[in-house]
Amino acid sequence: MMTQKFRAFLARQATRISWPIRLLHGNLPKLDRLLKKELTPAQVNAVARGCREGGERFGAYYHWKFRQIALLATMSTLDRDQAIALVTKNDHSDYRPIDGALADSRGLLITIPHHGFYLPGIIAMSERLQAQRDVFVFYESPENHDTNAIFDMIHERVFGNGISKVSILYNNRIGLVRAIRELRKGNVVFILPDVAKRVQDTYRMPFCGMQRDFMLGSATIARRSNARLMPVVSQPGKALFGFSNLFADIVEPCATDGTAEGDLHADYRTTLAVMRGLEPLMTHHLVFWQYIHSYVAVEKEMEKVPTFDTISTELLLKDPYLNLLSSSPISV
Predict the structure, then answer these.
(1) Which CATH class is domain 91-298+310-317?
(2) Is residue 58 within 8 Å of residue 25, measured between CB atoms?
(3) Neighbours of 13 (CB within 10 A)
């Protein structure tokens, strides 16, 4: 029977020798099935657009998938010391921005999308941050999203030694309340802002040349906890597992008048500022984005959208994506 370590070895070797696949101009349905990600014609077009945005051919998408598989297969075989050694060896980040952010005693909400090597990126930052603050990673539980079980397992191996200051918070009411409480105490929370359970809970805004639906949960948490937001992207390097955490400017939660309408207006503006921070770090590297298959560029004449300097609250609230008639709180 093939062992887990041997599978990981094969995954790494397959990734190393498959670099010519980057030269492919189009998709291969058989390869899509092998990767367990069959693409619709619309998704094929979206991936092709995203690749072209970065000057890549369609095959770059496949090669990136191989790198992701190799990383997860390898990480799942390592103990804490081995995992930290792998991450440290491949980390080429400049951490001066995050060190500067810790000079402020307020909580720090790090918004890191499903882009690039975000898992080792989070591990590297958590290892550094826990020397000064308690650290929490907020994501969907395996009960609701079964593929997240591997992240639980990797966390247990890397930070489950009983003395670590890095913990998991699941996306439920208990986790949300804990995240706000910890941020109010000045601690650090990681959140992935580019995912949503339902489109009805999202709000549309411009992003990387398209219109994309995002939840306002990160902004809501920051507003309720008086925490700052730091947009981060973990950009892959040329080496198999190489990466650099890239930091955008700190975003302060926008002011609100305390009304439901004011809270919504403020959270939308804050989320827009976070996404504008992420945009220049991702636009030409969309091949590394987990949701590249949803990339549909807007027409040129639609790229100029009104900003909150020119848009009225009345117009905003007429948007069908904004529903103040609901009595339920904004979910995360």
Answers:
(1) alpha beta
(2) yes
(3) 11
CATH 3.40.1130 in the chain is located at 91-298+310-317
Q: How far is CA 29 from the centre of its chain?
A: 27
Which 8-state DSSP code applies to residue 160? -
| pTM for the whole structure | 0.87
**Which residues have a Cβ under 8 Å from the Cβ of 301 and sit 6 or more positions away?**
none
**Nearest to residue 109, comparing CAs of 19, 28, 191?**
191
108-111 and 228-236 strand pairing: parallel
Q: And the tokens for 73?
A: 């297969």
Tens of pLDDT along the chain (332 residues) come to 468 899 999 999 999 999 999 999 999 999 999 888 899 999 999 999 999 999 999 999 999 999 999 999 999 999 999 999 999 999 999 999 999 999 999 999 999 999 999 999 999 999 999 999 999 999 999 888 888 898 999 999 999 888 899 999 999 999 999 999 999 999 999 999 998 878 888 999 999 988 899 999 999 999 999 999 999 999 999 999 999 999 999 999 999 999 999 999 999 999 999 999 999 999 999 999 999 998 776 544 444 444 544 445 444 444 444 443 343 444 44
| Mutual angle of helices 80-90 and 149-159, in 10-degree steps | 100
**Residues near 300 by Cβ (< 8 Å), separated by ≥ 6?**
none
